Amino acid sequence: MNTLAPWTKYSRKTLEKAVKEVINRRAQVRIEDDIEPLFQTEIDTCRGVVLAIRMRDAQAVTNRFLFRSYTPYSEKKRRNAQSNVTPGLKNPHEGIRISLLKVALAGTAAPFYFGHYHTVLSIGQEQAARRVPTNIMNGTGISRAKTDRRKGKSHVPEGKSRYEFQDAGFSSANNPCNELYREIQSHHGDNMPVLVSIGTARPKEDFVGESPRTNIMRGLHQLGNPDEVHENLDIEKDDGKYSYHRLNHEKGIKIEMDEWKPKKDGSATITKMRTEFDNWLKEAEVQGKFIECAEHLVRLRRVRMTTPRWERFALGQYFVCQVQNCPKDRDNQWLDRVDFENHLKREHGVEDYSDNLERALDTCRRIFNYRSRPESS
Ligand SMILES: [Zn+2]
């Protein structure tokens, strides 16, 4: 029984508007995105992983749900070799090709603040394949449609299902490092990954008293405690399976999660955060941690920048063919330098680009333009 009223402190509509505004500024719309930008990145690149909690029938059953910007390795394996899924992978057939907006809303569905997020997603391909073929209405199709009508809900199309999500911050997955490590392991086996965990300067609270509010706050605080995962990773790093860097203000800063003072521009809250951060950064031990972590990451970056995918990954690079006599009129964008080079060589004559391939590549090259937030007047 769900005894908590569906009251929320903030409007989901306002959150949705804010998220859309950021997506419009920051996301690059690609041909494969259809209507709205997807969370998915190009093959063999990765934007990231978002962890949410999937609710079932409004019960807080903690089913962790991973949104991935890539196709899980085991998924590829299954397609190629019809083999089984690597055990331990979370929802490998769901959460793929989802819009950025849906992923952002599922990951921020904080109870009490914005409420749970309800949406309709395509069900996993493996599940879909197992379904009895249907000419629209038979078997489960009919019974589900009837049930939906009884509940006054709209019909969910074949191959899709309803999902209800909650922000993973309100669970022990508030620190997603462990989940991420498991994911890396299942994809890359024994490769030693670097885990950089950035904390949120969460204070170690003592909730004194037994009032209902205090009890709820204490419960939520305990539930979202990131230290347990951190401590485990910190101990197990000595086994040499991964490198681990944790950057966090251990004592914590006393700022409520939704503090924003004064309401007009939040300037007092921002100043408080900046001052606390600057003071923390001056500590010798913290400086040392930053240098150690940076050296490690720069070393890896230098190796990665020698790979062909680097420019696409780091600069959002793409090519638009502007060479004369191009046989393509609409579909004239390439994300990969080699693919674009092949287009020039195969579909153009050398006279189209005056036999100067490098110059043509340079002229047609575009990089992602970061659009910052317009200054409020
Ligand atoms: Zn062309």
UniProtKB/TrEMBL annotation:
A biological process from GO: lipid catabolic process
InterPro entries associated with the record: Acyl_Trfase/lysoPLipase
Example GO molecular function: calcium-independent phospholipase A2 activity
Coiled-coil ranges (or none): none
SUPFAM superfamilies, per database record: FabD/lysophospholipase-like
GO cellular component, one term: membrane
Domain of life, source organism: Eukaryota
Keywords: Hydrolase, Lipid degradation, Lipid metabolism
Keyword presence, Hydrolase: yes
Region Disordered, residue ranges: 138-157
Stated name of the protein: Uncharacterized protein
Organism of provenance: Xylaria hypoxylon
